[in-house]
Specification:
homodimer, alpha+beta, Arc Repressor Mutant, subunit A, three-stranded antiparallel beta sheet, three-stranded mixed beta sheet, 6 strands, 33% helix, binds manganese (II) ion, binds zinc ion, DNA-binding
DNA sequence: CCCTTAGTTTATAATAATTCTAATGTATCT
DNA sequence: AGATACATTAGAATTATTATAAACTAAGGG
């Protein structure tokens, strides 16, 4: 549990004004033991449940985008119909359980070095992400 | 270059009636030396350019979905705003050049074995895909 | 403090990809 | 040829996301 002051400072340092909407979204996103993955729809629901204040849908979108730009969230393109976001911004990988559409983190350290033997002229590797699809064990 | 008869047989064997729309889409998708990636919008454009016949947008969507179900196409979730499809259905990986939004195949054999040290109880690995983001070399 | 201003929130409209509907058309089987 | 299940189509509906523009507010200077 972190006090709102912490988020106020964090927002100010990022050049974002600490509005009550943003502070509440920070609490919802970052006041957790665990990082997690979410869609905008899910985030709106969490805010509705936890918060006394109302936050408009537009502000939820705006804030998520602002936080992505600042590096506080990552977008995970796993389904093309809806955007998934991740509060874990460390370099890591994912299981994806297609049965229930759930993403599960794989620590970077739990994946061996990845050896890519193809080169693209004029380009260099910016990041490597592994997606592991799961199915029920027979 | 393959004759239409080939696709007629392929469609029939799949339980899909060989309509002139589906045959034309087969030609556009599979009559190539190289596999490729495409969006629905791009596919519609290719069809418009190559084909004498008109194919409705609904049929393009229907056919792409039918072909995915039959395993003749794969969906590549790389952007959440639009679906990318792949005529390469072999197990392989991808570079993604964020500058121009282009996908480039990486042969399965060009990626070393991937060692995942995390286990999820009751689940087993169905597939492993690697996405490598590219940036311009300094 | 009070103003000013730039940044923010918000309701609502607009956009765009995709899916649905239901009428018309056609491949296939008898 | 006739019956029928499957397929195509135009257009409407849906849904996630973005844009708009008016009202609101945090921040900084006086
Ligand atoms: Mn993640
Ligand atoms: Mn591919
Ligand atoms: Zn994650
Ligand atoms: Zn590919």
């Amino acid at each position: 549990m972190v006090y709102a002051d912490h988020y106020i400072n964090k927002l100010r340092k990022s050049g974002l004004r600490p509005t009550k909407q943003r502070i509440k979204i920070c609490e919802v996103l970052f006041d957790n033991d665990q990082t997690f993955h979410f869609t905008i729809k899910e985030l709106v629901k969490i805010i509705e449940n936890q918060a006394k204040i109302k936050v408009s849908l537009a502000t939820v979108y705006n804030t998520v985008h602002a936080f992505i730009n600042k590096g506080y969230l990552k977008e995970i393109p796993i389904k093309s119909s809806v955007s998934y976001y991740d509060t874990n911004t460390a370099h890591h990988h994912h299981f994806f359980d297609e049965n229930d559409g759930r993403l599960i983190d794989i620590n970077h350290s739990d994946v061996g070095p990845i050896d890519i033997q193809t080169k693209i002229p004029g380009k260099k590797i910016k990041s490597i992400e592994v997606f592991v699809k799961l199915e029920d064990q027979k």
